[in-house]
Amino acid sequence: MEPAIAVTARCEIRAVIRFLNAKKLPPIEIHRQLTEIYGEACISVQHVRKWCREFSGGRTDIHDEPRSGRPSVSDDVVAKIERLLQENRRATLQELAEKVPEVSEKTIDNILTEKLGYRKVCARWVPHMLSETHKENRVKCAREFLQQCAENTEEFLDSIVTGN
Predict the structure, then answer these.
(1) Ordered domains of the chain (ranges, CATH)
(2) 5, 43, 103, 146: least buried by Cβ within 10 Å?
(3) Which residues have a Cβ under 8 Å from the Cβ of 142 and sit 6 or more positions away?
(4) For residue 4, which phi and psi values (nearest 5 degrees)?
(5) Tens of pLDDT along 42-92?
């Protein structure tokens, strides 16, 4: 399997393979030249051989062919789930799945945890990483707390309820 190379770099490498293959160079020599220019991690000898067979067999396109696979979730669905979550932080996966029938509960869970970065804490969905807005709200609350404490320290401290 090819290492993670940018699509444009992959196409560029395939174009070089196609050119050198047309000059009748053997795959091992093509690989040697590729690693000399692009480095060791660019493409394996097996892939050079595969592409040489493809181009010798009549293929001319250096781009990947479209292939089927698991469809990705649209940004509209992600935005809809995020909006529903903003309305009700205590929403369950089942409730969200009922409101967004185009995706499964498992997909909703993946969207919440992986794409949006939420996690369930005390039956509430909260962001795993604080956004700038959340950080600003925390600073604002802390300043208000300090201001109230400075104005009437004794009464303010007596009004704080603590528990074990």
Answers:
(1) 7-56 (1.10.10), 75-127 (1.10.10), 130-164 (no CATH)
(2) 146
(3) none
(4) -70, 100
(5) 888 999 999 999 999 998 888 877 777 666 778 888 889 989 988 988 888
What CA–CA distance (Å, rounded) separates 17 from 62?
A: 9
Alpha-carbon distance of 10 to 69, in angstroms, equals 20
Closest CA to 9 of 64, 82, 76: 64
Query: Would you state the structure tokens that stand for residue 39, as one six-digit string?
Result: 């480095």
Using CA atoms, how far apart are residues 140 and 34, in angstroms rounded to an integer? 57
Encoded tokens for 13 = 């490498």
Mean pLDDT of the chain: 83
Scan for tokens 């950080």, then name that residue: 135
